[in-house]
Design a protein that fits this description.
Blueprint lengths: L1 H15 L2 H13 L6 H20 L2 H15 L1 H28 L2 H10 L2 H15 L4 H13 L3 H28 L4 H37 L1
Helix pairs in contact: 1-8, 1-9, 2-9, 2-10, 3-7, 3-9, 5-10
Length: about 220
């Protein structure tokens, strides 16, 4: 138990030093009309981290990966065509958002609060955690160690909860520190900069991801 506790604290501490998640939390703090809604983004990260950890520990991710591989081998052309179509649709959406951000239209300004609603932020956090999972080597190492010891289910859940708490702790500290500094001249200048940058971040990332899907799907069909 002491070995698992030390491994959980060490691995989660290494895993929580994630500059991308911290920067994204700061960006959302500057964008969100209601600052407390940023907690839904952090909640999405934490819950996804916990559920994905349980899925990996019990082999559900491996089963899903094998099932998708068999599906891709059985129906390669329809899947690649669907991927290319989805990439094309998302690319058009990303380019449209970029044009709105550049022109500063009223539609883009009106859409911003809706895109920062609690449900949207929660889903954004969950998606971010899922994408980051491929590089979460400390998490995989801890899960492997946990699996080799095979403790009871309540113990597994307890350790994964501890890991998740340490993982999101820097984000909670960023949230608390940001709120403590609200109203200061430095933070107001930072918010103005982040708000200008944020208008291009989401459309830019969406366009890049859509271009990857489109090109990968097209080249796979050739």
């Amino acid at each position: 138990m002491l070995l698992l506790l030390g491994a959980a604290l060490t691995a989660s501490f290494l895993d929580c030093l994630n500059p991308t998640a911290i920067a994204q939390t700061l960006l959302l703090q500057a964008m969100a009309p209601k600052k407390r809604h940023t907690l839904f983004f952090i909640l999405g990260i934490g819950l996804a981290n916990l559920l994905l950890g349980l899925a990996i520990y019990f082999g559900l991710i491996a089963w899903a990966t094998q099932a998708l591989s068999r599906l891709a081998a059985a129906y390669p052309v329809p899947l690649r065509a669907a991927q290319a179509a989805a990439g094309a649709v998302l690319l058009l959406l990303g380019l449209r958002l970029l044009r709105r951000a550049r022109c500063g239209t009223a539609d883009a300004q009106a859409a911003a609060p809706a895109s920062l609603a609690p449900l949207s932020l929660f889903l954004l956090g969950a998606a971010f955690c899922f994408l980051e999972l491929s590089s979460a080597l400390p998490y995989f190492g801890f899960l492997a160690l946990l699996g080799s010891r095979a403790p009871a289910l309540p113990v597994v859940l307890l350790f994964l909860l501890l890991y998740t708490f340490v993982y999101v702790l820097p984000l909670l500290l960023v949230y608390a520190g940001y709120n403590a500094l609200r109203g200061t001249a430095l933070l107001q200048r930072l918010e103005r900069v982040l708000q200008r940058v944020s208008a291009y971040v989401v459309p830019g990332v969406l366009s890049a991801f859509a271009a990857f899907l489109l090109l990968h799907g097209l080249f796979s069909l050739l």
